[in-house]
Amino acid sequence: MSYLNIKKLHIYDNQNKLLDISLEIVNSTALIGQSGSGKSLTLKSILNLLPSNLQSTYEVDSDFELIPSNIGFVPQNPFTSLSPMTKVQKQFFCSHEKKLELLKLVGLQTWVLDRFPSQLSGGQLQRVVIAISLSTQPKLLLLDEPTTALDNESKRTILKLLEYLQEKLDILILFVTHDIHSIKNICKNLVIIKDGSIVEKGLTQEILDKPGHSYTQHLLESTFENKNFRE
């Protein structure tokens, strides 16, 4: 399996340091933190999408090149991820045979290709987005809060799909979320970020069983109390 070791990532706004981290993405890794913790900046750095007003220092070690064809990206809102006036089949950039293979992989029927995004449910749309993100056979799959915009049933379906894909595909996964419990069956490794710095990292189950930082404990407690997610 591939690896990605971000040895140093510093991001500045004028003279203010916004992010100062090192992060090793091994197998399946979750990056957890509340809004404003630095998760989005980390993703934008990997995707080379930082705003022009930000300065960055970036040192990385990887066995693959960080170019678009090697990175799959799944944003949090499937309702705005696809062109609403274009049928699904036209939003893939691969052969028809590959489209059918990808749809089967994510548990969708072929009739989906002849639909407009507005004719699909949120869960179906997110599975389409995931299929499209895998069409270039990327080395790294970035997941940005991929269940936030979904209802509970769709959320469980997508989490089970991601768990299946993680087991089936030889691909690195970076799952970014504030929901620490949602990744426990998907990600073997856990990284906790707070105010632009890493405060804890290690094996997911070990951190869930015995969090070593008060901020991690806070995340666990706040997620557990969130009635919008139940196992």
Describe the structure.
- Helix 4 links the parallel strand 6 (about 140-145) and strand 7 (about 170-175).
- Helix 3 (about 120-135) runs parallel beside helix 4.
- This protein has a single domain (about 5-225), classed as Rossmann fold (3-Layer(aba) Sandwich).
- It is globular and about 50 Å long.
- It has helices at about 40-45, 95-105, 120-135, 150-170, 205-210, 215-225, and strands at about 5-15, 15-25, 30, 55-60, 70-75, 140-145, 170-175, 190-195, 195-205.
- The protein is built from 6 helices and 9 strands, in the order E-E-E-H-E-E-H-H-E-H-E-E-E-H-H.
- It starts with a strand and ends in a 7-residue tail after the last helix.
- Strands 5-6-7-3-8-9 form a 6-stranded mixed beta sheet.
- With about 230 residues, the chain is an alpha/beta fold.
- The longest helix is centred in the last third of the chain and has 17 residues, at about 150-170.
CATH topology: Rossmann fold
Number of separate domains: 1
Q: How many angstroms separate the termini?
A: 30 Å
Secondary structure category: alpha/beta
CATH class identity: Alpha Beta
CATH superfamily heading: P-loop containing nucleotide triphosphate hydrolases
The amount of beta strand, in percent, is 25-35%
Q: How helical, in percent, are the residues? A: 25-40%
Major sheet: size, sense and barrel closure? 6 strands, mixed
Name of the CATH architecture: 3-Layer(aba) Sandwich
Strand order of the largest sheet: 5-6-7-3-8-9
Name the average pLDDT.
91
The ordered string of helix (H) and strand (E) elements is EEEHEEHHEHEEEHH
Low-confidence stretches: 227-231
Total helices: the number is 6
DSSP strand tally: 9
What general form does the structure show?
Answer: globular
